Amino acid sequence: MGYIIKALFVLALLGVVALSAFAYLADLTPPKSEVKVPVTLHAD
Question: CA 18, 31, 34: angle at the middle one, nearest 5?
Answer without folding.
Answer: 160
